Amino acid sequence: METRRKRPVSETETAYTPTPVYKLTRNNINAYILTHHQCQQLNDKYYIVGINPYTNQQLHLTLPIITNLHGLDDGFYIYVLLSLDNGEPSMYFIKTYTSYEIGTKHQQLIYRIACNNQTCKKYNLYYAGELQKRGNEIKFNFYSGTFKMATKLKKTKLPQDIEYMKQHILSLCDEGIYIQFMDEPIITSENILFTQKDLDDLKHLGANVNTTPEKKE
What would the mean pLDDT of 145-174 be, rounded to a whole number? Predict the structure, then answer.
């Protein structure tokens, strides 16, 4: 774990290109599609929410994809660095919407970036993780359950790849923004509490919300 301010990126760092963790095409992207049915507890009841995060346009409008680090409000986000059709790598962010994380899983973000009308571009995924912005401080990690990013970085990535990732993030920040790289989860049920408003908002977006039978004493 380390905290650093932005510093100029050298020409050597700029010229270096990391090795992709995943190279996915439209032929296998569907293997990462998740149907979203999750269960959460609220006031002694368990709520099951069903919604399609890939096709629900209301959800997409609620969860815009952000491509500029300066466009982030305070809150929790996931992010990816990827390139489309062997182009230059770019960063994409999306704000976590409730502790269900509906529509804000890494594979759901990538699908929205790379695919349109079930036609997907080739893309290289370099890294994925979570972040929290609070004032002029941003915490980053390289955690993604779907892509097992933390494991990949430890086992297969070269040290210069990890340094490139950190420098790329630092290069996007204005002076006065403090970056902290974490080696622990950021998006957790303790950090993002599940509320009645979450259920109401999801219903408004067309989600199917059901309760499980209450337990008898």
Answer: 66
**Token pair of 126, please?**
């370099």
> Model pTM?
0.78
Give which of 163, 83, 73 is closest to 122, Cα–Cα.
83
Q: Which of 188, 187, 194, 192 is nearest to 40 (CA)?
A: 194
Measured distance CA(184)–CA(202) in Å, rounded: 28
Alpha-helical (H) ranges within the chain are: 11-15, 57-62, 106-114, 149-155, 159-171, 196-204
Q: Do residues 76 and 41 make contact, with C-beta atoms less than 8 angstroms apart?
A: no
Q: What is the 3-state secondary structure (H, E, C) of 125-171?
A: EEEEEEEEEECCEEEECCCCCCCCHHHHHHHCCCHHHHHHHHHHHHH
User: Which of 172, 56, 171, 68 shows the shortest CA–CA distance to 103?
Assistant: 56
Rounded to an integer, what distance in angstroms lies between the CA atom of residue 165 and that of residue 170?
A: 9
Residue 210 exposed, middle or buried by CB count within 10 Å (0-12, 13-18, 19+): exposed
pLDDT, residue 98, reads 80
Evaluated on CA atoms 194, 196, 201, 204, the torsion sign reads positive
Nearest to 81 by CA among 132, 5, 22: 22
Query: For residue 55, what are its two tokens?
Result: 């096709």
